[in-house]
Amino acid sequence: MADDDSLILERSEAAMKRAVKVIPGGVNSPVRALKAVGGTPFFAAGGDGAWIFDADGNRYIDLILSWGPLILGHRHPTVVSAIQAVLSRGFAFGAPTIGEVDLAEAIVKAVPSVEQVRLVNSGTEATMSAVRLARGFTGRPKLVKFEGCYHGHADYLLVKAGSGAMTFGTPDSAGVPKEFAAHTITLPYNDPQALKNAFEVAGDQIAAVIVEPFVGNMGTILPTPEFVEALKTIPKENGALLIFDEVMTGFRVAFGGAQELLGVVPDLSCFGKVIGGGLPVGAYGGRKEIMEKVSPVGPVYQAGTLSGNPLSVAAGLATLGVLEQTRPYERLDTMAKQLCDGLSSEAHSKGLPIVINRVGSMFTLFFTDAPVNNLTDAKTCDVEKFGRFYHLMRDNGVSLPPSQFEAAFTSVAHEEDEIERILEAASQAFSLL
Fold it and tell me: How many Cβ atoms sit within 10 Å of the Cβ of residue 6?
């Protein structure tokens, strides 16, 4: 924070004025514009451990962590050294590298459901490719997804749910012809009966069910045991594939991802974020018999100029190496629980109804007094109050996701001091709401 404890954003405001002239909305990803909470975003200038710094010299405890990848915190020395070592030798070759094999082997070793894996450049590429592969493998056209689950911005995944057991998709973004989404069936999350009904209606046409096993994109939402059981059994019984979108949860909630915690063996899994250590990356993988349908050995085409680029691979390998060696997940869970318990206690002591959903080091604070188990529940939360809370926290040196419907994260760099500072800021903020 600035010395007088008032948040000064002069350089960020000047940068935003320049940005809106040359970048749509001034940002390269919509949530960064703060449209959900209002105000001017700070422009980042650096980070260290659990902290992020802006262009005006303000310091914040970071609970965004680049939207999840930085599980080790900013500028972890092992990751920095790995990137520097590769950078000195070259960073793009258009040829395979040994590092790509090392990272693929690391993912296969960590995730039992994955026998082979293909590296791509983003989570969107991973989910898009996995869906194409599922359709190619099964010979079926339709896809089941769930309300509020975000799987990247491929046209047929940008679909808004309708009512009933099965809804043929309509686009949720301008520029997507309705025909592109016509094979996407959207169902309520945590509704096993809706999944059963969809397969009763169109089971022989459904190639795959894609799901965030722990949702992060309508806020953090956990699956019920009944829903998990339905995901395990219904697609398999009907010859469809189960795709776990672990772009957010992979190597974040457990070393083996959400599937390790839930005891589910999906047919295909998608990864991103943590496996690149903060650099652009994505991956999809699964059983060998499925993955061997991918070109050049199979008929399902997928390619990428910078797929498996050496810098991302080096950062990912270094990150996974630290995670494998130190196994910090119990401590991550303990620290996040301490934070969330403290937030709940502070809010309730001020008479504020909140609900916190958490899995490991991933959580969301909802301003509501009712359980949040699906998109309908999430939409009942007090977004105006969250916006005020966001700004009060930012003014006190805590950077939260600027939306009620996003997940927050902690890292191995968040220590007792950071937790105490966050809770002090929250206590002051709750008093003013």
Answer: 8
